[in-house]
Amino acid sequence: MNNKPLKVELFFTYAGLTDEEVKGKTVVVIDVLRACTTACAAFMSGCREIIPVESIGDATSLLDKLDREVVLLAGERKGYKVDGFDLGNSPYEFTEEIVRGKVIILASTNGSRALVLGSAGEDCMAASFVNVSNIVERIASVGNDIAIVCSGRELNFSLEDTLCGGMIISGLGDRAESANDAAVVASKLYEERKSDLASALRNSDHGRYLVSLGFSPDIDFAAQVDSIGLIPYWDNGRLVVDDGA
Amino acid sequence: MNNKPLKVELFFTYAGLTDEEVKGKTVVVIDVLRACTTACAAFMSGCREIIPVESIGDATSLLDKLDREVVLLAGERKGYKVDGFDLGNSPYEFTEEIVRGKVIILASTNGSRALVLGSAGEDCMAASFVNVSNIVERIASVGNDIAIVCSGRELNFSLEDTLCGGMIISGLGDRAESANDAAVVASKLYEERKSDLASALRNSDHGRYLVSLGFSPDIDFAAQVDSIGLIPYWDNGRLVVDDGA
After folding, report:
1. Inter-chain CB proximity B16 and A13 less than 8 Å
2. Could you give the CA distance from residue A55 to residue B58 in angstroms, rounded to a whole number?
3. In terms of CA atoms, which chain B residue is nearest residue A209?
4. Per-residue pLDDT tens for A30-68?
5. C-alpha span between B13 and B25 (Å, rounded)
6. Interface residue of A18, A155, A161 to substitute, partner B, most B CBs within 10 Å
């Protein structure tokens, strides 16, 4: 690893993201609650690949072209599993029994779309607290400038994604050059909240909403820093992890 | 004025704003650099009304339906005056000699669109640092719940609008109940930066960009808290101010 400074821009949502802003960069897409956390859980349980899609329509169209025997449809709207889908967006649903060897089409409200847009970068990976240290190590080693794209919440600010983005910038230490206002704000918010991330997640807008739906365990799952070391990364239209990882 | 608590939600951009989020509320649209600052300057110089429109096409179509003698076209893209328009988006252009008695069609990149969307609220007003205390007084007196909509910058975060939003929440004191994460973050950012707002504006992403274009005086203009007491508010498709204000 050399010590070239890395320019880091952060985006609170993907709303204003243009190809120009990710071109040639390492893109880190964050969706703590819950798509990127759940993607890590799915790979941990042995799924083969995840295909993020932008809409429920895209998911069902794609299903028709694939072998139904090995494909699972996953996704949510307003936090709930989509009618007719195999799985929702809770990490606890993605057990080894269900997902081992499978291809998962993922149509979450925010993270899936952010991942599709982020894939225009030089490389693109899915991050959340469960794999944050490995993400930091990987992007430092790659050495490209970095665009951290928070998935947000229906195009609005998401505190939990921002805190995770701040943690990544903090993890890069002196190598990170925060290059936009949002990156500076994210770092500051992380420093203020890092002593109790679980509580910050639980009390965030999105956290409170998920608790109200009965998904409280998902938040505890998502708050476990470095509990899953895998790095789902974009490769030819889908997310994969390295063999044997 | 009664002391009913006011629920305050803040949006870093208008990207995710739905009619549901503004319905029945007092909407405060903020564009510090520069549309709302410039609107205040224009009314100070005696313009009769401002019609914010969402696109350059909308501006020119509307022009055809109005009396060209009394109408001025104003707007910018990437900070520069639109070709063929009478005015750009710098407050210094809107002098009494030019705008007195005129109707101004305003097609700025961010603020105009935010104002059009915000007009779905129960009431809607244009805010920036130059009129912030009067805005606080007005919204406290109206007593509706409040949606503060930062115009942002091409659907991305804008620090200067957020600081102004934080100042408004701070101004409401104990009456404000920050009801989403963005409102809490804005308040905190304002408290941290309030001792030198001019410097915060100048060093923001947008501030540095405007300085690079030669609009440095516009930033100083925008940083003058309460220099213009007027409140441009939405009335029947356009912004006006109270007579004699």
Report:
1. yes
2. 30
3. B180
4. 999 999 999 999 999 999 999 999 999 999 999 999 999
5. 17
6. A155
DSSP secondary structure letters along A87-150: B-S-GGG--HHHHTT-EEEEE-SSHHHHHHHHTTSSEEEEE-GGGHHHHHHHHHHH---EEEEE
- pLDDT tens column, A126-138: 999 999 999 999 9
Nearest to B39 by CA among B51, B27, B28: B51
How far is residue B239's CA from residue A172's CA, in Å, rounded to a whole number?
47
Domains and CATH numbers, chain A: 6-230 (3.90.1560.10)
In the predicted model, is pLDDT for residue A118 greater than 90?
yes
What residue type is A165 in one-letter code?
Answer: G
Separation CA A121–CA A10 (nearest Å): 14
Query: And the tokens for A110?
Result: 């925010």
- Band of pLDDT at residue A243, cut at 50, 70 and 90: confident
Q: What is the mean pLDDT of residues B12-19?
A: 95
Contacts with A229 (C-beta within 8 Å, 6 or more apart), sequence order: A131, A133, A134, A245
CB contact under 8 A, B16 and A180: no
Interface test with A, best of B12, B13, B157, B177 (most A CBs within 10 A): B157
Decide if pLDDT at A244 tops 60.
no
